[in-house]
Amino acid sequence: MNKFTNIAIIGLGQIGLYLYNELRLKSSEIENKTGKKIKIIAISAKNKNKKRKFPINKKIFYSNPLKIIKEKKIDILFESIGLSDGISKKVVEKALKNKINVITPNKALIAKHGDYLAKLAEKNNVNLEFEASVAGGIPIIKTIKESLASNQIKKIYGILNGTTNYILSEMENNNETFDKVLKKAQQLGYAEPGNPKLDLNGFDAFAKVRILSALSFSSKISKSKCLMEGIDKIELKDIKIANKLNLRIKLLGISEMINNQLFETVHPCLVNKNSFIGNVNGVMNAIVINGKPIGESVLQGEGAGPGPTSSALLSDLLSVVRGNTKLSFGIPFNKKKKVKCFNSDNYSSSLYIRFEVKDKSGVLSKITNRLAKYKISIKRIIQTPDRKSNRATIVIISHKTTEINSRKCLSIFKNNKNILKRPTLIRLYN
After folding, report:
1. 208 included as an active-site residue
2. pTM (whole model) above 0.90
3. Is residue 323 domain-resident?
């Protein structure tokens, strides 16, 4: 590298702008820790004149990020646009082809094109680093690639989305509805003000699961369809019932090898309130790694917001500046294996099923008979009548059953006039 390590930042949203300011404030600290001076020589975003929280140097502003790569001598490029395709992919791809190190928090990009981009980085002998793509300030990528490199990881799971964890925690702690807490999360910057769908439907967490799977099992990123559900159907009533059962609802991302086949999923889970994962609240993330010989290892920290994300981005920066060139996924691309995926139909778990029904005789027996038909064995029944409205809430906790059994069974209840709405199903964490 030259006298200065020349840096470009593409995307000046919450994360990109915060990073820009951190780099300006911490340039001396970075030099002390690496022996190298850094210099931001180019920035790019949609709007040059947009009012921003931190002032930017408009003299180094480019409307077209691809022009930066063509005209400037760049050592490290930060991509924080956040798209899986389009300009995000074009910028990263062109940078790597031009032998520019790339650092990104873009989990959507890595989850979709990570294998291709990692191969490209390896071919051009540059870094593609993405510590910030999973769990914010938790150093999970480096932990898997370096600290646990000699371990055989069997399973990795946890709370991977701070937004959903905050919403579920606030619903429980303040006895507030989903919609009310979502608005609060948007006001605080934990959820997108316009469209928080990617957080709520589980897609954000699932992209992170795919990245963790590839790292943990030295595999190519899976492209198969897997079980994915969000928290948008969780009601305050479910939170209250769970509390009475000494349980708590958490959105978990899970990746494990079952009979040498990869199983990946994201869905709400009922976990014991006294468990470690049951006590991770607010915007906190937590990841549990089961491996051999280490046993169980736990990492916890803030997973949302520009601060934790920027911390992870700067960690990658220091690593690259120090010359610690690493393989993006910890192994050469040609050593990454393609793994067969476990059929999610055969995934088994205990179930929490909530029915809202007309309070009349024979309704419960019809429900239990249909459950039995699909080999769903009942462990516990909680029935709460509402005499005023002539309605009742029936909650059934089942023994373990397969995913295909539960899906087929629930589909039958759609046309039953005595069942007032589609039953709510939440899996108990195994």
Report:
1. yes
2. yes
3. no
